[in-house]
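Task card 7
Instruction: Convert sequence to structure tokens.
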Amino acid sequence: MNMDTLAKALEQFVNSEDWDEARRIVEEHQDLLGNQAQQLLAENINDYRSTNRDDVADYLEEHRAILQRSREIGIAQAFEEAERQARETLEARHREMDALRPSQPTPLQGTVWQLLDADAPEKVDHVLSEHPELTRDQAALEYLDSLAQQAQQAGAKEAVHYLREYHELLRTFYELPPLMRALQEFIAVPTWGESREVLKHNPDLMSAEAISIMDNLIDEAQRQDDEATAHALEAYKRVLERSREVGPDRAIAEIIEPEEEPAAP
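Output:
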């Protein structure tokens, strides 16, 4: 397997949705068990450590370890171990998080717990779109900090790790440039009517810079063979382009209003 093919297989492996998919990829591309794959992962891990992205580095370290374990005891047994460890980790996290849950949460705390209880990416996106204050109110980050401190004091390491992941997620929103934050909101809101309001409150979304950012996002999705995301982003880009021409009201109306029936002969 040449280096480009190996790198692509490795990318599929680390981006797999679960251990079952990851195991199938390793079975199909057993060069992933070789020294070259180990070296590529080691280099990526070091790169992320050097930029203080320990969350990504830890994720890659976990995948590197299972490849190494597959070399030692075989693919099937290594992935059985990984799945068992994943179940045990999930059970421990649930116990530790439940111990932190307040009996009478404030409205903000309740919203944060909705986010923490989201167990799939689409559910996380839904909570963030329904509660944009999570990405705007510094108090949400402060509450996550306080929960992490409580978990640390209790020795609840799985809860600490989980809370830090969500803290990092929200922190990225705070650090986004205003235009990127507006684009995130434009894409995240659940209805076209809400998208129209985002556009009207953020006219920079109709700028050439915003269109260029969308092009980059589409290119990245296509590079990762994520055609569903690329297709969705293309639709949002067309709305931005049309809004530049005719304004947000008309552009959104063209999407949500049914076409007029042709006149009867």
